[in-house]
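[SOLVED] Need 3D model of a two-part complex

Original post:
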Amino acid sequence: MRKPPSLARAILASVAPPAERDALLGDLEEGFDRRVAEHGPRDAARWYRAEVARSVWALLTYPGRWREVTMTGLMQDLRGAVRVFRRAPGFAAVVVLTLGIGVGGASAVYSVVRGVLLAPMQFEDSDRVVMLWGRSPEYPRAPLTVGDHNAIVDNVASFSGVTASWSNSALLLGDGDAEQVSVGWVTPGYFDIVGVQPVLGRAPEHFDEEAVVLSHDLWVRRYGADPGVVGRVIDVGGEAMEIAGVLPDGRDPNLTTFAGSQADHELWRMQPPDWTRGEDRSVGWLRSTARLRDDVTLAQAQAEVDALMTSVNATISARDGGTDLRIDLIPVREDLVRGVSRALWILLAAVCSVLLIAASNVAHLVLARGEQRAGEIAVRSAIGGTRARIGRQLLVESAVLAVAGGLLGLGLARFGVDALVAVAPPTLPRLELVRLDRGVFAFALAATAATALLFGLIPAIRGSRADLSSALGDRSTTRDRRRQQLSRALVVAEVAMSVALVSATGLLLRSFSELESVDLGFEREGVVTFALEIPDWGDTNDEAAVTALTYLNRLREVPGVRTAGLTNRVPLGGGLFTGSVRSEEMAATEAEAFETSIRWITPGYLEALGARVEAGRTFDEHDGIGVVLIDRRAAERLWPGQDALGRRMETSAIGEDPVFAEVVGVIAPMKHHGVAEDAVETVFYPMLARADEQNFRYMAVRVAGDPVDFVEPLRTAVKDVDASAVIARVRTMDDLFDQDTAATRFATFLLTVFGGVALLLSVVGLHGVMAYAVRRRTREIGIRVALGARRSAILGDAMRSGAVLVGGGIALGTMLSLGAGELVRSLLFGVEPRDLPTLIAAVTTVSLVGLLGTYVPARLVLGIDPAVTLREE
Amino acid sequence: MTQSISDLEVLALAALLRLGEDAYGIAIKDDIAARTGRDVSIGSLYKALQRLEDRGLVDAWIGEPTSVRGGRAKKHFRVLPAGKEALEASLRSLQNMVDGLGLDWKAS
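Solution:
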């Protein structure tokens, strides 16, 4: 007997309305049989397939086909679900809350990832804008030198434009109070290349010494959003400048980070052309930005730049050093978020594991509940409920829980986002883009759907397969045990994920305490720093030096002030200035110079910071350009194993031509560029010898007492010297330290929260599974008690079965922890990813909490009264 | 008021009347094919019959399982009085539309 083609028959069976299925299959089989007899099996099979194919659409659109599934059926199921949950409010509440926490947390963190990392920059084709950074063994991310910038401008065809920017600050005078603003100096074409056009006026296309462009903020704040402001002449640090244009709101053309956070220029002006002329490669200070030509990929452009640098490096002399410089092209968005992207992805991964734990928790809650309802389901199938119908009812119940959980999650995410933004470090760029939008909504929806599938589908498949004999009669069947096994496996997975999260949290906590106690090379307590901005420092170096000393002396007279000093940049305050140096001995043998960090300082500065002098002395007022201080790292590199004091070194940082300077002091290495960064070789130059040429002047003041209390007295003292002098960017050294470690603190704080929630959820899951297991064995235990078994033995038994779950989870979790450690490696400081004490602490914590979660339900066995349980059964 | 019915429904009603007791899926399909040359898919036919049933024009019931057809029962159909009226009305309209057009439409 020939059979119809099985696939076609299966398709027909699945698309046919249940009521017609048998008749339809029979009709086609009859037709098939007849055709086999008349035309042979091949023809019959072809006919059968064609018939099925032609029928599919008609069957799917069969009258009333979806009625049951859609309205009436669904309403019925919904009503059923609500009834079910009204009968078990505790169950429903735990499920909804667990889901809400999982979905809410994940959505909140995703909103940050989306805003900070994924949202496009708000200018035209922002993915074609790249930053250019020099990369040498000493400095992985250094500003370009004029020579390198020009080499790129002249030779690289991959760019449609290259521009350079640089920043300092200036005083805005007139129109009310004097105010310090951050100034971006740009080459012509900057705004075109970046892709931002002024909303008012224009951006100068050629060098225009007197033109300034205002940021939207400054325009609103200082000029009252006056549309007639274009053409107005304003006083910028004593220079008369004309407002050429105003930039649009919310489209910030500051492309680089500055002091850890995004640069915040509010006034833009043109760089004099002679700044970027020539081939000087001694000092890197240009932040170069380029726009890729439309037909060029990033890789092609990078290859062209690499080839160029290979030929440039070949021409560099040993004196200048830096013969192995590469230039990296980094898309501007990536560049902005590079410091935080890894941490954010890690946090998202962590919060998603919390979501997974929540989902598996809910899954075994639903499983256990399905178990309790096995009787009900068996009755329903006994009175004719089809498997599909019952499965659907269970799915609808899951869906109701999921929707409720998802809604709660969205609500929690709303608060979560606000909370995250509130505790986020100020250094997190693009924080203003973080919000609950459609993308986050879609994410929450997807997260809910995924978890609903996980916790809804498994029980639906298993639950609907209720077999009558087991559910109505004997309870301990194989399938029943399998359901138990699934629950137990889920708990093991939860415990494992908790161990991984807790140990990752532990690593971060340890890193954080290492950061807090790290040797900065100076004493951060009791120091306040600020930018000192005055209209006129004087026309000559001598005048400028006198001006500087006047302010210093006036500040030192303020009661409670111990000492004060000026520098071009305070530690941890951002700004990288480098110059190449080599010792006299190295110069004699034509050995290659190397890059060091440069600081200009006045007398009193190192004392104010509390830096440690390891040999020699610090500067005094009479030191000229012929003397320098160096830190121990520079000393060890210049004169390895020898005394550096009194030696001479060649430095290119001071002028065009190399100058020899004598080392008069060696300072303990200071963490200028970041608490977690290694200190870099640093050379200190006497600021008073070049007092008129400084672009940045920051004051560091050491006080007795809380530095915050001194801000106003210091401001008053500065105004005493010149009423239009301004102090800006006021930060205590503690502020700068906190800002520098804020990202780690943020990640640590969030991971601690996630780790805690994960632990809590696992314990809830463990408790649920244990309590359920004990309840199921009530009868058996009752019998054992009746037969005289000691309660302690039974308790031990129950504990053991819990301990097996915890133990399995911990074994698995230990392996996961090693992976998690690697994942967070880049966030660690002073601790290895496979730190044994941390792992032990994590395992101990999870074990203790896990055993507690076992003990509480296990104690239920003690309350079992054999008389009652046996009578019940 | 009689209900308007579709082309396929007209064919199905006529087939039911002719087949009487033997009116079930594949037989109806084959009858239509034999008399009109129109190869209706079994799915479309069932759909049309279901529409007729929903409107009270035909009656349907499941027969006893048979030993042939893979042991599956047939679904039988029977025309109800309203169905016959609808068929007649439909044919009358058609007749009225084509009367006097001099068309050569009688089957030979």
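Edit: Confidence is low (pLDDT under 50) at residues 466-476 of chain A.
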